[in-house]
Write a structure and sequence with these properties.
Length: 414
């Protein structure tokens, strides 16, 4: 089987490419800018100033030969330049994704047995594959955009001062994503929550498959936790309303906890930081932290709180588990797929302040069980390696190919 993967950006697509290459299934990887580790191009970049090297470090892909990487750099460079000029990001990425899809040659799509594309960058690619007779699987990184709009309306009503962090997607982009979902031969999502939102918006259950992401667990080193009087809670992620931060802050303020601390780690706007420092002075705001530093920092805390209203997965949940932290999260994340409620974490309903308050107090009251729970989360995370993610993809592709063959055979007979 020869698989072509098409993704104009980065995200977790590099992990998928890497794992399919290990499985001997990768034919080509079409992307914006990717640099094979150890390639001549990477060696040339090593002579550039360190600041530039750091900026391109997320473009380096391991264990994939240069000959299988096809860069379509111009649309990506234009997009990066436009974003730097603070132009509308939705329109910028629409144009990038459009030109990226058109630049992949027909010959490559025909040569492949199957194409894997990603949401928001596949509406033209799917039509081209159908015309060429090539099967197409859509990898969906977040739950349905129409469901997201409804959630935003609800959050905006509850926390109007946080509306600055909620950006509604234009209807034409929602329509294009719906087209992708309807036309794809199969869809892969990372959580049961994402799958349910697709079903709620008219996508057939039988063509949606759940494959949770992975984590590099050996990059995290859980700390040995001793009995302590202070419990240190941490939130990691974009500090905005969708992630449930205003709910968390309100609950934290009402609890008046003398035996606990709360730290927020993640990108934050000046407006939001001002709100927090003014109204919630006891909360520590660290801002954005490089991932290399976060891996060292995460184990120093005791519990992750991730009360998000809407996710495709929420990789930080799995990263915290790898670091040996129990997790408080919602039913709109990967939590229900990974966590045994009140065994290695707590699952709450989105927006439920009472359940969040109970969860926080529960960890404080049962602080002596934190080490045991942390050990369980670490053991659970070890089962969700990127290698396991790749193996599940391999099995899914084999199953899909068999089903597609049966369908083609039936059509031929009829």
């Amino acid at each position: 089987m020869k698989i072509l993967i098409a993704h104009p950006g980065t995200q977790y697509s590099y992990q998928l490419v890497k794992q399919l290459e290990k499985q001997g299934l990768l034919y080509r990887f079409y992307t914006g800018i990717a640099i094979a580790e150890g390639s001549i191009l990477q060696k040339l970049f090593s002579f550039l100033p360190m600041a530039i090297q750091k900026k391109i470090s997320n473009r380096i892909i391991e264990d994939v030969p240069t000959k299988k990487i096809r860069n379509i750099a111009l649309p990506e460079l234009r997009a990066l330049r436009s974003i730097a000029k603070q132009r509308n990001s939705e329109d910028v990425f629409y144009q990038r994704n459009k030109h990226f899809q058109l630049a992949i040659p027909d010959s490559a799509l025909q040569e492949a047995d199957l194409v894997i594309g990603f949401d928001t960058s596949s509406w033209l690619l799917i039509d081209r594959c159908k015309q060429l007779g090539t099967k197409f699987i859509l990898d969906v990184s977040i739950a349905h955009p129409a469901s997201k709009q409804k959630v935003y309306t609800s959050i905006g009503a509850a926390y109007p001062s946080w509306n600055i962090t909620l950006k509604n997607k234009p209807q034409y982009l929602i329509d294009l994503e719906q087209q992708e979902l309807e036309k794809a031969d199969a869809i892969v999502v990372a959580s049961s929550f994402s799958k349910q939102t697709l079903i709620d918006n008219g996508i057939g259950n039988n063509k949606i498959f759940v494959n949770p992401y992975g984590v590099q667990a050996d990059a995290f080193f859980p700390a040995i936790k001793k009995h302590q009087s202070i419990i240190n809670f941490v939130f990691v992620g974009l500090v905005d309303a969708r992630k449930g931060v205003p709910l968390l802050l309100d609950v934290w303020k009402k609890l008046h906890l003398a035996e606990a601390t709360l730290t927020l780690i993640g990108p934050i706007s000046q407006e939001v930081e001002s709100i927090i420092k003014t109204s919630y002075p006891t909360v520590v705001v660290k801002g954005k932290v490089p991932f290399a530093d976060l891996k060292q920092l995460m184990p120093k805390y005791d519990v992750l709180i991730f009360p998000s209203y809407f996710e495709g997965f929420g990789l930080v949940v799995l990263e915290a588990m790898a670091a040996g932290l129990p997790v408080i999260t919602t039913n709109a994340t990967c939590g229900p797929d990974l966590i045994d409620h009140e065994v290695d974490g707590i699952i709450m309903k989105t927006g439920n302040s009472g359940q969040l308050s109970y969860a926080i107090q529960s960890f404080i009251d049962n602080r002596y069980s934190l080490a045991t729970m942390g050990k369980k989360t670490r053991e659970k995370a070890l089962k969700y390696s990127w290698e396991a993610y790749g193996e599940r993809w391999k099995n899914l592709l084999i199953e899909f190919k068999i089903d597609a063959y049966k369908q083609d055979l039936t059509t031929t007979i009829l």
